[in-house]
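User: Structure tokens for both sequences below?

Assistant:
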Amino acid sequence: MEIFGKFIGQIDNQQHRARTEAVLGWVAKEFPNLMPIIKWNQPMFTDHGTYIIGFSVSKHHLAVAPELAGINYFSEQIMASGYEHSKQLIRMPWDRPVDYDLLKKIIEFNMMDKAECTTFWRK
């Protein structure tokens, strides 16, 4: 997780920093075949060179970006978990627990859906 050290170190709020580090660490442990990278100043995970999931930090939430296909597929489950989403990201408020089961399903969906993808983003 060294690759994310600088990003995590720049998070001013200690609680937000700890949560972000925990989520990124969980993804790395749960999906050891995914490649952790920093692109566009954000932590991401890729599989065979294709984007699987990315994260960013805001004042009110940890943003999770699984691309539009993942958000569309899991929209009802995202809302049932108490999260809001836009077309490009899921907002996980700092004061609510992380739904790791949902996060796992989203990552697994992207890995399966993009298994034959040869580009970074979906076309």
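Moving on to the next sequence.
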Amino acid sequence: MPTMSSHRRAMPPRQRFQDLHAAEALVVSVLRLWAEPLREPERQHPHWQDGMTTAGLSNDAAVAFDTLMRIVLAATTRPLDLHRPPCPSLGIDEALLLDMLRLAQQGQHGEAGVLMNDWLPLAGVRMAMAPLCVLASALSRAGLLMPDPEAEDLRPHRTAAGRMDRPHPTADRGATLLH
């Protein structure tokens, strides 16, 4: 059976919260705040929806996020790696959600579903894809696009002399298998 790593696209490692773009930081912050009452139900917690509202997202985005995460919690096949709000590092599953949202924003729903299969059995993936796509669309409408790490790596960078360095193309020599 294929593993998650066999399906995952090669992305640069995002290990620190501070390295995230604004849209990514919003999603991770909302996710962490959403999970806090599950860890400590007896304490008062900030409302996770407030960040979404401040960012200009509609109530549909909040409902989609909550629905997605409730499906994931109900049907997950393994514990999720979600960090606490003040943690400076990024959890594996936090990065996975960002990748799924990016793929959904790019219209690559099948690939997003393949990544989601690391969390859920196929029936759960089918249920969770709709709220994932609603959330991705709401983020897009609000101008909150998940950055594409591959496109950023290909963007020319200026040197100290002010001239443009050209990206150096790399060839996939068949190392990527498509199923």
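User: Anything stand out in the second?

Assistant: Helices lie at 4-7, 22-39, 49-54, 59-75, 92-105, 109-116, 122-141, 149-154.
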